[in-house]
Q: What sequence folds into this?
């Protein structure tokens, strides 16, 4: 993992492979941002002019490298765009700093150490820059290199040791030295520590999402959770296929029965002695989704290893809560299964009896996420938490509605939905509140069962939310996050977002846990 240090050294005196400075987009050209004063001085006050000559504008995420002049201890200056210059008396917002730091860290892949001299006015800036740099420096290298290297790396974890190269591929930036921060300031130190814990868990989720399904099965996923639980003092309970059958978890079993890799339901329990409330998180964990008998067509199944992104996010959020010692009880439920076609697979037309006792007519085996979540939601409800949030790559309809970067939020409580939306925006995760129209429920009526797993085609993401609502215990506040769009990024990396698994919703869930611990959610 990339190391993070808070440095009191000046930008002109710190030795590093590169020095990162910020540049904003002004009305008449690029404007050098605070933090780069020493660098601008080394350019005789003409850094903005030099950047303008090189074509730099200060646009968000823009990266310009230039040789450092004499007087600096670093050979390379990297100017990264922060976007528009803030209005008078306003500071650069956290997301701009986060994205800029991420873009810079990605551009410095292969370097051992870089100094970041971006604008720092408060602890929030320290945290944003640290988060962006550590997330931007992420790389999934397990399957690169020689057979022995790959095996050793796989046994040791997802990301390889930072700095340098491995198997012909450059490794992530080795160390981030954050200038302008104060290592002896309690707020700055706490911000850096939070950033390290949070980004390590987001990157843990990314590793799991990126792991191919021949290596990540429900059983191996559960084993990874068990190991992390031991490390961080989290109680872990794993229900295997025999326990699931004994308990009557017909939804999870029905989805997993076509695979040679049997399903699991994993419960993580983090408790705090001063906790006044309990938050339950439920994650969809389909380690590979072929669609089952309702087989996905070619072009729609190649990335379906990512269909466990919700479970990965919940896992990461619970561990992060434990590492941050949040004064709230957090329970995580991971509904893990592999959806495969075979002679033993659930067929369209079959009826499953869920853990709640309700029967579901399965009209489409590719609408399997709602089946495993239904069982997990009802089981989570039995513990009477103060709120439940489920996270899932649930529907293509939500991607059509909101695009690839925004997740949808549905809830049985409008105030709770609003709070989650505001939290997501605060931490830099794009989201949008979505309704649960009552009239769409009728489309799931079944002539032979209590409910069907499909309804009207139009508004399919909302129909899925209404299905899940049926399995939430009475009187329990609940929200559903459909992260089908942002969970797995297939395009070119941008900001701190890599190609592949993103760890979408982890920051929102952790901030929600913090707000719950502070008593800010009622």
A:
């Amino acid at each position: 993992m990339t190391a993070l240090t808070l440095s009191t050294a000046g930008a002109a005196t710190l030795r590093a492979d590169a020095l990162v400075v910020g540049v904003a987009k002004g009305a008449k050209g690029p404007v050098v941002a605070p933090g780069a004063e020493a660098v601008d001085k080394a350019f005789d006050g003409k850094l903005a002019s030099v950047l303008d000559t090189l074509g730099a504008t200060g646009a968000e995420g823009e990266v310009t490298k230039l040789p450092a002049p004499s007087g600096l201890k670093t050979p390379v200056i990297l100017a990264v765009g922060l976007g528009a210059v803030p209005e008078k008396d306003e500071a650069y917002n956290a997301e701009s700093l986060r994205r800029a730091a991420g873009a810079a860290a990605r551009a410095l892949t292969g370097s051992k150490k870089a100094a970041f001299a971006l604008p720092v006015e408060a602890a929030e800036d320290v945290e944003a820059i640290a988060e962006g740099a550590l997330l931007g420096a992420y790389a999934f290298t397990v399957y690169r290199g020689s057979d022995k290297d790959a095996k050793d790396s796989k046994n040791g974890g997802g990301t390889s040791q930072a700095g340098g190269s491995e198997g012909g591929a450059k490794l992530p930036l080795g160390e981030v030295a954050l200038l302008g921060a104060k290592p002896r300031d309690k707020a700055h130190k706490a911000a850096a520590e939070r950033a390290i814990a949070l980004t390590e868990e987001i990157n843990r989720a990314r590793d799991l999402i990126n792991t191919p399904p021949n290596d990540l099965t429900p059983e191996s996923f559960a084993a990874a959770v068990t190991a992390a639980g031991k490390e961080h003092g989290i109680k872990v309970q794993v229900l295997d296929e025999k326990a699931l059958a004994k308990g009557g978890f017909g939804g999870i079993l029905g989805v997993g029965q076509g695979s040679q890799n049997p399903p699991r339901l994993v419960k993580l329990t983090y408790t705090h002695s001063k906790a006044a409330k309990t938050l339950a998180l439920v994650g969809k964990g389909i380690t590979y989704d072929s669609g089952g008998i309702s087989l996905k067509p070619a072009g729609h199944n190649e990335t379906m290893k990512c269909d466990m992104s919700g479970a990965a996010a919940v896992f990461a959020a619970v561990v992060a809560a434990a590492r941050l010692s949040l004064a709230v009880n957090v329970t995580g439920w991971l509904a893990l299964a592999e959806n495969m076609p075979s002679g033993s697979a659930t067929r369209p037309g079959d009826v499953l009896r869920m853990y709640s006792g309700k029967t579901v007519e399965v009209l489409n085996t590719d609408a399997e996420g709602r089946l495993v979540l239904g069982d997990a939601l009802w089981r989570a409800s039995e513990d009477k938490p103060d709120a439940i949030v489920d996270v899932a790559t649930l529907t293509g309809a939500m991607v059509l509605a909101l695009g690839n970067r925004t997740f949808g939020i549905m809830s049985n409580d409008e105030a709770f939905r609003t709070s989650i939306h505001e939290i997501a925006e605060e931490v830099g995760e794009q989201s949008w509140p979505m309704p649960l129209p009552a009239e769409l429920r009728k489309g799931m009526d079944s002539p032979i069962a209590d409910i069907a797993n499909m309804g009207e085609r139009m508004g399919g993401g909302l129909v899925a939310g209404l299905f899940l609502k049926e399995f939430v215990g009475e009187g329990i506040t609940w929200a559903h996050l459909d992260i089908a769009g942002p969970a797995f990024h297939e395009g070119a990396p941008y900001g701190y977002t890599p190609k592949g698994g993103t760890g979408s919703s982890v920051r929102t869930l952790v901030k929600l846990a913090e707000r719950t611990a502070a008593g800010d959610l009622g």
About this structure: The radius of gyration is 24 Å. The first helix runs from residue 37 to 42. Residues 43 and 321 are 45 Å apart (CA to CA).
